[in-house]
Amino acid sequence: MYDPITLKLNVDPLILSALREDITGEDVTTNSVMPQACQGEVDLICKQDGIICGLQVFERAFTLLNEDTQVELYFNDGETVAAGQLVAKVRGDIRTLLCGERTALNYLQRMSGIATYTRSVADLLKGTSIKLLDTRKTTPNNRIFEKYAVRIGGGNNHRYNLTDGVLLKDNHIGAAGGVREAIALAKEYAPFVRKIEVEVETVDMVKEAVDAGADIIMLDNMSHAQMKEAIDYIHGRAEIEVSGNVTKENIAKLADLGVDYVSSGALTHSAPILDLSLKHLHAI
């Protein structure tokens, strides 16, 4: 759940922007059928099995339109929901319920879908010490929602943004002139409290990264045999992350490697939504 300060400073402006995107002038359809205020109630119903996530954001989409809107929640983020279950009831001015419906559902479906997919991937790593990480492959202006959903699903957050840490990828290495040069420049520039992670694609790059003093080495798109050779060479001298097209279908093959982290962009860029719907709107 977002704390009050984060909600006010970082979450509310994004939800308001999404609401403005949907209502640039007026909701002409709602104003046509509901020209005056009328109190009503609508049910939030789950249409698929999954992990619910984003209920606070769902509620906020309505209360930002009208603070008198009441949302009665029957689940908490992270809990399992099943098709046909009543997840919440929303009460308030019917015009508010109609105007906020799509924005509220868009957030809830997207966040629940990410949490559900993440849980299914995290379950495949149970019994290991590997931490499942997300990436920055998120929808623009939705990172705060999508990375929260990863945590709710049982994953962990990698860097939130470029300020969080040093991650030397292929183009950084190319710009610097090599792995050794990139690490040396990062050590000279970055504050000492920052860990330095470097992305490598060959065993030779691994050796350079270890010898140059990288804190974390990311094995990117390597074969299983290459990863085993790289891990044997690193031998505890750096933390190890595996990345590159990691999905639910292939992550189990990495469980026996004994690495520290596995990162997957698929957690955020490829998770399908969880189908939810607002139904049975009626006046009260």
Note down, in words, how this protein is organized.
The structure is a single chain. This protein has 284 residues and is α/β, with parallel strands linked by helices. 41% of the residues lie in helices and 20% in strands. A six-stranded parallel sheet has the order 6-11-10-9-8-7. Strands 3-5-1-12 form a four-stranded antiparallel sheet, with helices on one face. Strand 8 (196-200), helix 8 (203-211) and strand 9 (216-220) form a beta-alpha-beta unit. The mean pLDDT is 96.
- In sequence order, what are the helices and strands, one letter per element? HHEEHEEEHEHEHHEHEHEEHE
Overall pLDDT confidence: 96
Q: Approximately how much beta-strand content do the residues carry?
A: 15-25%
Percent of residues in helical segments? 40-55%
Record the strand order, biggest sheet. Answer: 6-11-10-9-8-7
Major sheet: 6 strands, parallel
Give the overall form. Answer: elongated
The count of strands amounts to 12
**Measured on Cα atoms, how large is the radius of gyration?**
23 Å
Q: How far is the first residue's CA from the last residue's CA?
A: 30 Å
The unreliable regions are: none
Number of helices: 10
Given helix and strand content, the structural type is alpha/beta
What's the quick description here?
By secondary structure, the protein is an alpha/beta fold. It has helices at residues 4-22, 28-33, 55-63, 94-123, 143-152, 170-176, 179-189, 203-211, 224-234, 266-269, and strands at residues 39-46, 50-51, 70-73, 80-81, 86-93, 131-133, 166-168, 196-200, 216-220, 239-243, 261-263, 276-283.
